[in-house]
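Support request, priority: normal
Reporter: lab tech (M.K.)
Component: structure prediction queue

Hi team, I submitted a job for SMP-30/Gluconolactonase/LRE-like region domain-containing protein from Arcella intermedia yesterday, and the status page still shows it as pending. I've pasted the exact input below so you can check whether something in the sequence is tripping the parser. The sequence length should be 226 residues. Please let me know if I need to resubmit or if it's stuck on your end.
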Amino acid sequence: MVLTIAGSTKGFNDGKHCVAQFKDPRGVCVDEEGNVIVADFGNHKIRMVTKSGVVSTIAGTKKGFQNGNVMISQFSGPNFVCSDEEGNIIVSDYFNHMIRKITKSGIVSTIAGNQGNEEEEQSNYLLKYPRGVCVDKEGNLIVADRGNHKIQRIIKGGVISTIAGSTQGYLDGYSNIAQFNNPMGVCVDTEGNIYVTDSDNHKIRKILNNDMQADTMIEIQEIKHM
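Reply from support: The job had stalled in the queue. We restarted it manually and it finished. Here are the results:
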């Protein structure tokens, strides 16, 4: 059975599920209390839907970039969300080319990335139009770096390293030669393997985890016969 838990017409409105409005909502996750966290891409806000169906705005005022208290914070096209082991909300801030964090105490900060301009293509972005984000068993963030065609790891402290991906294209094999074409979603299984929706290659990819090997020895395989 499919149910609508919140949302009416396109727009912006907090309140009960039947009158609440979203604009092009993207990523969604569930926090430790069972609330649904939504990246409201078109409204540049992070929203919450409670178990009783009441919608509120957690963070974000208008399109832009601003850290600090959630009441003044700004996002530019928040895309995907996840929750870490401390209950913080992690946001891929698409047009700001950043990964942001919203703490339980209501403070927004930047974890990684450098602010860009959506109207200018630049080659020096640390992250470029980040999409999917998830947390691995060590508490590191895994990011689908769409514009750079790579899968990135962000350790605590904000240091970014490439797990897999070289240039735009399609190629299975070891991580230093593997190719993606606009990777979108990512998740990690209990064994530490990473799954990637490789959007413009129209494939689901798998990055094998092998603790005995360096990152450059992680093999990329297309998932078949599933």
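Residues 4 and 17 are 9 Å apart (CA to CA). The two ends are 24 Å apart (CA to CA). Let us know if anything else looks off. Ticket resolved.
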